[in-house]
């Protein structure tokens, strides 16, 4: 069954068209990161309260607590490596990656940062909380900073990620929407597709005629859009799916 689904998905991708990848936390599971809302007790939102740790209100109420949580996460990120799923994607340099992941594993696998659209920002940078101040810093993940103020203004430094209730980075979001209206197929990998507006890209692509290929260990909110749904781990299925193909998101010749 899986083999015939893989063959059908490869046929869609091999056709003379353009594709892109939309990923979530399941992509990085084989690197040792937890997902957010899987039922297992290791998932982040089974252990921690997102309102407390991943919202602007939570940050305003207790910034030290939020920064401390990110220090803990950053130290985990410092010790992980790209897995075979990231490596398989990195072998497709003309493919745009739209990701909700704040890790930097796609870039560390070799992808050009310009080809990775981080809809939820990245944990590898801090920025000043004041929107009018553009100060940011690249973080040493092995020695992440604690609570501190912006050296340019009175703001508090915070991770350059998108929290619940915050808007997505405008330019990146516009680029992702434009791309999803143009491609012929979209590969969805390792996401529950439960968080809007990011997951709205799936129905947007579908409405514009894109075929939808879903890779996940389980059913997700992307399932109902799927033309092909392959159940399995990203680190196993993606290398099989992409082996020998040379895909592109935009016309490069
Ligand atoms: P979720 O935790 O919501 O979903 C992870 C998905 O990965 C689930 O559908 C799992 O079935 C699937 N999965 C687990 N292991 C897998 C594996 N080895 N291979 C393939 N699939 C696997 O994570 P996201 O969808 O990424 O946002 O969550 C979206 C956003 O919600 C995150 O960016 C984060 C979170 O709250 C913010 O923090 C703003």
Short account of what is shown:
The chain is an alpha/beta fold.
What is the terminal-to-terminal distance? 36 Å
Strand order of the largest sheet: 3-2-1-7-8-9
Helix content: 25-40%
Q: What string, H for helix and E for strand, traces the elements in order?
A: HEHHHHHEHEEEEHEHEEH
Major beta sheet, specifics?
6 strands, parallel
Rounded average pLDDT: 95
Structural class: alpha/beta
Radius of gyration: 18 Å
Shape: globular
The distinct bound ligands, ions and cofactors come out as: 2'-O-acetyl adenosine-5-diphosphoribose
How many DSSP helices?
10
Catalogue the unreliable spans.
none
- Counting DSSP E segments of at least 2 residues, the number of strands comes to 9
Care to describe what's here?
With 253 residues, the protein is of the alpha/beta class. It is globular, with a radius of gyration of 18 Å. Helix 9 (200-207) links the parallel strand 7 (185-189) and strand 8 (211-216). It contains 10 helices and 9 strands. Helix 6 (84-90) packs parallel to helix 10. It has a 6-stranded parallel sheet, with helices on both faces. Strands 5-4-6 form a 3-stranded antiparallel sheet, with helices on one face. The chain starts with a helix and ends in an 11-residue tail after the last helix. It has helices at 2-14, 44-47, 50-53, 56-61, 63-78, 84-90, 105-108, 170-182, 200-207, 234-242; strands spanning 19-23, 96-99, 116-118, 121-128, 136-138, 157-161, 185-189, 211-216, 228-231. It binds 2'-O-acetyl adenosine-5-diphosphoribose (OAD). 2'-O-acetyl adenosine-5-diphosphoribose is lined by residues 24-26, 29-30, 35-38, 43, 50, 54, 100, 120, 162, 164, 190-192, 194-195, 216-218, 220, 233-234. The site of 2'-O-acetyl adenosine-5-diphosphoribose (OAD) has 27 residues, from loops.
């Amino acid at each position: 069954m899986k083999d015939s689904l893989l063959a059908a998905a490869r046929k869609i991708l091999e056709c003379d068209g353009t594709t892109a990848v939309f990923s979530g936390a399941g992509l990085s599971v084989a690197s040792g990161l937890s997902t957010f809302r899987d039922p297992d007790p290791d998932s982040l939102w089974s252990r921690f309260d997102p309102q407390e740790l991943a919202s602007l209100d939570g940050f305003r109420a207790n910034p030290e607590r939020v920064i401390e949580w990110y220090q803990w996460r950053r130290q985990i990120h410092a010790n992980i490596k790209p897995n075979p799923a990231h490596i398989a994607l990195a072998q497709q340099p003309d493919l745009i990656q739209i990701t909700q992941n704040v890790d930097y594993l796609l870039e560390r696998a070799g992808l050009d940062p310009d080809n990775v659209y981080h809809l939820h920002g990245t944990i590898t940078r801090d920025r000043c909380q004041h929107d009018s101040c553009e100060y940011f810093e690249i973080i040493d993940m092995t020695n992440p900073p604690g609570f501190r103020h912006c050296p340019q203004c009175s703001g508090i430094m915070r991770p350059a990620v998108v929290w619940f209730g915050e808007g997505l980075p405008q330019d990146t979001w516009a680029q992702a929407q434009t791309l999803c209206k143009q491609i012929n197929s979209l590969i969805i990998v390792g996401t529950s597709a439960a968080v809007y507006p990011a997951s709205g890209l799936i129905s947007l692509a579908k409405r514009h005629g894109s075929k939808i290929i879903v890779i996940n260990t389980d059913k997700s909110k992307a399932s109902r859009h799927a033309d092909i749904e392959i159940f399995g781990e990203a680190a196993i299925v993606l290398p099989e799916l992409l082996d020998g193909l040379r895909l592109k998101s935009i016309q490069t010749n």
